[in-house]
Specification:
This protein is an alpha+beta fold. It has four helices and ten strands.
Length: 223
């Protein structure tokens, strides 16, 4: 009778709790392949503390940040266009030279009847620096500029003379110098009648007594 060979017991999977299976699926700490916590350096931590949480990325197309190269490029173009604009403006300004428009030396001083004989009018001194004088010989206009240093004399009616307040030069009502440092008489300017009958004074035409101009047409108006 043959001997019965004993059969090996069947290898049945041992039943383990679910907790053990999950422990087997997760590698143990320190084993190969296990994730390690990232260790940041002190410099990285300081950089993250300084930088904002949302940083705008710098790109080549429309970033709000500008690189040094772009900055100098744009600054160069801006300087170039500014130079071209200034050159064009200067060229245009050169085509229109500056002209000083001085007031006209000719003005009307009213009618002869406004000035009685023996009267020295000072109404035009402030605006035109001219006195209108009328005597028995006629009517003439004297420029209110002292022949010493160009100050404006004053008419002193009580003393019947022109007196310069700067250095004391004195002139008669006709304009003759008789005291002070003034070297010559006051200058007369042209006086004529306009078409409307008013006095027409032209300060650009002068008559000097030392040159014998007093008495020439325009130096006095016979009225």
């Amino acid at each position: 009778m043959a001997e019965e060979t004993p059969q090996a017991p069947e290898n049945k999977p041992s039943e383990q709790p679910a907790a053990d299976k999950s422990a087997e699926a997760k590698p143990a700490e320190g084993e190969a392949g296990a994730p390690k916590p990232e260790v940041k350096s002190e410099d990285q931590l300081k950089a993250e503390a300084r930088s904002p949480k949302k940083q705008v990325a710098v790109d080549a197309k429309g970033s709000i940040w500008m690189s040094r190269r772009n900055f100098f490029s744009r600054a160069g173009w801006a300087a170039f266009f500014a130079f071209v604009a200034s050159f064009l403006i200067g060229s245009l300004r050169f085509m229109f030279p500056r002209v000083l428009f001085e007031p006209s030396p000719i003005f009307k001083a009213g009618y002869p009847d406004d000035y009685p004989v023996g009267f020295v009018s000072t109404i035009w001194v402030k605006e035109q620096r001219v006195w209108i004088v009328r005597d028995d010989d006629g009517l003439y206009a004297i420029q209110a500029i002292c022949t010493h240093l160009g100050c404006t004399p004053r008419w002193l009616d009580a003393e019947n003379k022109f007196k310069c307040p700067c250095h004391g030069s004195g002139f008669t009502s006709e304009g003759i110098n008789f005291e002070g440092p003034a070297p010559r008489p006051l200058e007369r300017v042209q006086v004529t009648l306009a078409e409307d009958g008013q006095l027409l004074i032209n300060k650009s035409i002068k008559f000097l007594q030392e040159k014998g101009d007093w008495g020439k047409p325009g130096s006095i108006l016979k009225v």
